[in-house]
């Protein structure tokens, strides 16, 4: 990131503040423009208390999705999360089939270190043993995204990456029946169909959608077919209580074009190295939600949900410099590797919030318990067929056949003490018990496995918040975090990794100190300094053995620290000078600087210990900046967005080059995106989106496993247009 760029960011930040300094009126929720009501969709922080949750003193965001501000048709995450500083996005595919986000040095792979929720309940496949998020919710179904940074550990779980909750739309309570539909088509035979119904009749309200997304992909051999279903029926049995049944399902089949070496990427970043690799997850989530308001001061929420499904892949797994061609001795292609996981999980969470008088002021206490049980049946390294289509049948049994079981009990309590009208203190505690058992066979079914581990640990945290008279507030918090080592750290599916048999859990903490607020409807800001300590951080090293063979070694690399600044500003350029203007032009900037480094750790390289101190944390760019202009005028909304992501390293020993492409530097990149929405005749709208407008050649990650190994090129220029109706 050069000096000129840093200076331009500083000027942008200061100019936003200067343009808004003179404004002092309160924020309004809606604006009346030419008889069209446009919702104010500025990002906000979550309120001190919401439902049974306490957010006072925490680093939070509340994001409202809009078709004129993000490409919702293909779940473009870098646009949806543009106004949340520091979100690192791994762009595994241009179809948005998986959500791959991380913050402050956490792993982006299927958001594995982030507590992902929908309507308050988890969608990760297994919160402890295999916390990857295979479930895919279409952004067109999302009403808002609630985000709590690392201090989410006490109320939601121990993840370093915090919590992200997708709140889905609900039916129009003024109608017995409502209908909405949007059809979008674009480059590379992209097609997306979103269709929903909703309404309310008496004490029953409902909302349901069906979404389908297909396309050929930007690269050859990258076709996909995705579907998502959801139904929510809610019964309000009296003015105090309700019960709702929800069912969600997502499934897709994706062809994987494979990873590239650096030479291949330089020569042609759009080429494919694999035509016979496929991936297919299927996730089902039925849930039951009970809410009861005993009185104005006491509220109970109980959520029970089941997650069951599977993850399937069939691949020719080898480094990108080894082509998948006909084996001359076999006279056919080589057999592919078949891997299958089967998930069955049950979770119940109960939360109670009570507001009470402390002196003359209202304070709030929340407490809850969680029961979680999950079984994964993992069958890997099966020898598949030599055909080219999606075929999971075997010619030789699985080399790994395991039963992985997790049992978790948790309890938490937090209390927001309203010390004065302006000052709150929120201490909290969480206690976790995790029982993990593993049984089965590995190493071509020759080595039996029998493992049992039981861990108990408390987590503590405290948040502070001080409200100023001008609508702004100071906030700060510190909270412990914990990450158990995952199943993949014990039995990897790929052929390239060796496991440290003594790998341990990771422990640490997350701290924030920030200042946020707004000035009238024309200026919003949130500036935060953070510090994350990540002890016993697990990861991979590139290692050369005595035979000069390079492989990857998974272990506790050492202790890491991520510290830096996250800053968001948004200013209304037109209304700063004319508050009665019928249109507006908003300029936003979302900037983060993360100094992610190892503070200890070493690598044994050919018998010599090499220190990893001061090495970059893997997958952690120093700078991430997203800036944009949004135009609003009656029926029209449109956003032009710029993204910059600095360089990062793919392994802990900061390898700069590897002939296979599986490790090395991930270079910095610049992108421009555009979204447009036009509403007309009250019930109709048109959308248009273009991503990577200037066709930048870049990638966001190297990887040693699915869907690589090697460099995974990001999509070049793509577009889609859509037509929607809502009645």
Structure report:
The structure is a single chain. By secondary structure, the chain is mostly beta strands. The chain has four helices and 43 strands. The longest helix is centred in the N-terminal third of the chain and has 18 residues, at 3-20.
Question: Can you tag this structure with a few keywords?
Answer:
22-stranded antiparallel barrel, 4 helices, five-stranded mixed sheet, disordered N terminus, tonb box, receptor, 727 residues, 56% strand, transmembrane beta strand, signal, mainly beta, single chain
Outline: globular
Strand content: over 45%
Average predicted confidence as pLDDT: 90
Secondary-structure content class: mainly beta
Treating each run of at least 4 consecutive H or I residues as one helix, how many helices? Answer: 4
Structure summary, number of beta strands:
43
Q: What separation lies between the terminal Cα atoms?
A: 48 Å
Helix proportion range: under 10%
The radius of gyration over CA amounts to 25 Å
Report the uncertain regions. 1-39
The major sheet is characterized as: 22 strands, antiparallel, barrel
Subcellular location: Cell outer membrane
Pfam families: Plug, TonB_dep_Rec_b-barrel
Protein name: TonB-dependent receptor family protein
Domain TonB-dependent receptor plug: 73-160
